[in-house]
Design goal:
Layout (H helix, E strand, L loop, with lengths): L30 H14 L2 H7 L1 H4 L14 H19 L8 H19 L16 H11 L6 H30 L6 H16 L6 H11 L6 H34 L14 H13 L5 H25 L8 H9 L10 H19 L14 E5 L2 H4 L5 E4 L9 E5 L9 H11 L4 H10 L5 H4 L4 H17 L6 H25 L5 H12 L3 H13 L6 H20 L5 H9 L6 H18 L1
Parallel strand pairs: 1-3
Antiparallel strand pairs: 2-3
């Protein structure tokens, strides 16, 4: 979701950003072979995705992980040309000859490709380096979180990637130069943060830097490797970081410092060329709906009022003086020290322990409402310290296909005030079980879907499911404590507020400060969380809209199924209908639920 390797709700889940065409001039007679060719050639074009997924290892083939992705404009243009060729191959199939599942796959692939084509004119609009993502942030996260070191060869591959990042930085700076000519420059307030963070990153002694420390810790435990070999590996890594990685960062920092002199503080993408239309295109991509920014803004205001009313009713029951108004009362609750852990290493260790306990607890209950569970497990880890200051409260990264890495719920422990006890269960259910981990791991493990559907990048579906999962946990009886329930409602309120502030920033032209003020007053969240979130929306237009839009659609479809099936409605089979086809646009999801309803009627 989101920083490619963070799943800031991506993230980490997106593998179709560049569809690479098959080499044939005509497609295979079997469209499923065509689908697999597309997926594999796309994957083979990305050394980093091969490392992330462990796809070759899952197929039983050894692989060297010694290269990084090609970020050059020439490579991007080659991929775009192949996308169009690939589309022509897809359109050559006669849909009347395909079975039901093949027709759905073809339709999903066509939807994604046509949406990509519609956005080609905005290919430079996304900021290349931000406080949230881009090469400077993604690279150490990738090397730390995804590059495995279980042998000397894999350690040498790591060192090769330390040297290889120089070319990526050169290509990224070249792209930013073109963006600057078009007037596409990160807001000044964010440039300062990027510069500060990355200066600190390379100011560390090389052996204290995460790129070396994590490498050294993995090499140290390699079995049957003598000390002389380990010493050589340490020396080679240190030299690569000192002579290649740090200078590459310095070059990018120098460029960003010059940009800071000409940047403005305008926060919304309305300031970009054709910015209003770019934002509307982003809304379609991120929500898979045709709703306008104005409609979403009004929906957000309505949902904020509704959810605040529910919270106030609970607070009144708990003895709070609600006549003071939501802003005052929610801050009173937020300032109560009983809801926080100690602001030290012991307190942070306890947070991680309690998150793990919550995962175990909910995992014992989900059989009541799910027929299908993922085989892969999920663990909780702390977001690396170097990136936690500007990271969200939590995010998820998917398991490796070969089973060598479980799903990971990354928890932000930077500001202890941003982790109130009453919000922890809800975050667990969203990021882990039955939220992102269930949806993403189940999709990966489905046997009869083309691979591209197991990694489909539909934000409203993915994030909508995770937000819906928070409510599911309440329905399971896991949020019966009044304050845990407030934590759930506060999280939903947070997503409703996003509808208001994202459209406020990019459509109504609110300032950064105006959006921070609105979110702080209407959520009761720690100011550190609020600032990080607003600055996230500044660089990721429309993404924050997907959560509430997706949740509302899933709830609408559930009510449709309940009404149609009456006593025959089974929540487990409804969840099968939602989860066992992979992610998809919301209108196509609605069609799948209608088919499930029709099938259930025939069965019953």
């Amino acid at each position: 979701m989101s920083c490619h390797f963070k799943i800031k709700k991506l993230v980490s889940v997106i593998f179709m950003s560049s569809l690479i065409a098959c080499s044939e001039e005509k497609p295979s007679d079997d469209i499923n072979v065509f689908f697999q060719d597309i997926f594999e050639e796309s994957l083979m074009d990305s050394p980093e995705r091969l490392t992330n997924t462990r796809f070759m290892e899952q197929k039983g083939k050894p692989w060297r992980h010694d290269r990084l992705d090609d970020l050059s404009l020439a490579h991007e243009e080659k991929n775009m040309a192949r996308d169009h060729h690939n589309y022509d191959l897809l359109m050559a199939y006669d849909v009347q000859t395909l079975n039901k599942e093949e027709r759905l796959s073809a339709r999903l692939l066509r939807w994604q490709m046509e949406n990509n084509f519609a956005n080609e004119k905005y290919r430079f609009h996304g900021y290349s380096i931000t406080q949230l993502g881009g090469l400077m942030d993604n690279y150490p996260l990738f090397m730390n979180g995804y590059h495995q070191i279980n042998s000397v060869a894999e350690a040498e591959d790591y060192i090769a990637r330390l040297h290889g990042v120089k070319k990526q930085f050169e290509d990224t700076v070249e792209r930013m130069k073109i963006q600057q000519e078009k007037g596409i420059i990160l807001p000044k307030s964010l440039l300062g943060k990027v510069i500060e963070t990355n200066k600190a990153f390379i100011a560390q002694h090389v052996r204290e830097n995460i790129l070396f420390k994590k490498f050294a810790s993995k090499v140290a435990v390699l079995k049957e490797v003598d000390d002389e070999v380990k010493k050589r590996l340490y020396s080679d890594a240190e030299q690569a970081i000192t002579q290649t990685v740090f200078p590459a960062y310095e070059t990018a920092i120098a460029f960003l410092t010059e940009q800071e002199k000409i940047a403005t503080n305008d926060a919304g993408v309305w300031k970009l060329p054709d910015g209003d239309n770019y934002y509307q295109a982003s809304i379609k991509t991120q929500t898979t709906t045709s709703m306008t920014a104005e409609q979403i803004h009004e929906l957000g205001l309505s949902e904020v009022a509704r959810i605040q009313g529910e919270i106030m009713a609970i607070l009144q029951k708990e003895g709070f003086e609600v006549d003071k108004g939501f802003e005052v009362v929610i801050q009173q609750m937020a300032n109560d020290p009983r809801f926080y852990y100690s602001d030290d290493d012991q307190g942070r260790a306890r947070i991680l322990k309690d998150y793990a306990m919550m995962i175990d607890e909910v995992n014992t209950r989900v059989a009541d409402i799910f027929n299908v569970k993922p085989k892969m497990g999920v663990i909780v880890k702390r977001i690396p310290k170097f990136s936690e200051k500007s990271a969200p409260g939590g995010y998820y990264s998917e398991p490796a296909l070969d089973g060598s890495r479980p799903g990971i719920f990354w928890a932000n422990l930077y500001d202890i005030r941003a982790t109130p006890k009453y919000g922890m269960r809800t975050l667990t259910y969203h990021e882990a079980i039955p939220g992102h981990h269930f949806q993403i791991a189940i999709a990966q493990e489905l046997k009869n879907l083309p691979m591209f559907r197991k990694f489909s990048p539909y934000n409203a579906y993915v994030e909508g499911w995770a937000l819906y999962s928070e409510r599911l946990a309440k329905e399971l009886g896991l949020q019966d404590d009044s304050f845990d329930d407030i934590g759930r409602l506060q999280a939903e309120l947070f997503r409703a507020v996003r509808l208001v502030v994202d459209t406020g920033l990019h459509y109504k032209r609110w300032t950064r400060e105006e959006t921070i003020d609105y979110m702080a007053r209407n959520t009761g969240y720690a100011i550190s969380d609020v600032v990080a979130e607003i600055e996230r929306y500044m660089v990721w237009p429309g993404q924050a809209l997907g959560y509430k839009m997706g949740m509302l659609k899933i709830l609408e479809l559930r009510e449709r199924a309940k009404k149609a099936l009456g006593a025959d409605f089974d929540l487990r089979t409804f969840h099968d209908a939602i989860l066992t086809n992979g992610a998809m646009p919301l209108d196509i999801l609605a069609e799948q639920v209608d088919e499930y309803i029709a099938g259930a009627r025939q069965t019953n």
